[in-house]
Amino acid sequence: MKTIAIDGQLRERLGKGGARSSRRDGRIPAVLYGQGKSIHLSVDRKQFVRAVQEAHGENIIFDVKVPGESAPLKSIAREVQHHPISRAAVHVDFQHIDMTKKIQLDVAVHLQGEPEGVRNYGGILEQPARDLAVLC
């Protein structure tokens, strides 16, 4: 897993109006929860998109820098909501994690190569599982 630093900015205005103004400013509204915390923040759109592109489909551990916190908070992007037409990220849910405790993650399954039955005998490949739940 890659660890990527990202800057968070606290949001004073919550709800639809606050989220829209964050998006106009080039930021993605987000919430960071877990370990007894719930923080409403926004992250820079370009920085977040660059981090996701660098990961190439892998799960990422984000070091979210939040004003008022002494150290960056280790988090994973638990859910990313996308615009239905442009597919741009419109909201991110970060889950703060403790590196000493186990969490459950979904890991994508990517098949490589072509099976011999498909290549030589006209078979059809079926992939019933697109992701696996992993406790790590």
Comma- or semicolon-separated keywords:
alpha+beta, 20% helix, 136 residues, 6-stranded mixed beta barrel, two-stranded antiparallel sheet, 3 helices, 43% strand
Describe this structure in words.
- By secondary structure, the protein is an alpha+beta fold.
- Helices cover 20% and strands 43% of the residues.
- The chain is built from three helices and eight strands.
- The chain has helices at 15-24, 45-55, 116-121, and strands spanning 2-10, 27-34, 37-44, 60-65, 73-82, 89-96, 104-108, 131-135.
- The strands form two sheets. The protein has a six-stranded mixed β-barrel with strand order 1-3-2-6-5-4. Strands 7-8 form a two-stranded antiparallel ribbon.
- A hairpin with a 2-residue loop joins strand 2 (27-34) and strand 3 (37-44).
- The radius of gyration is 18 Å and the shape is globular.
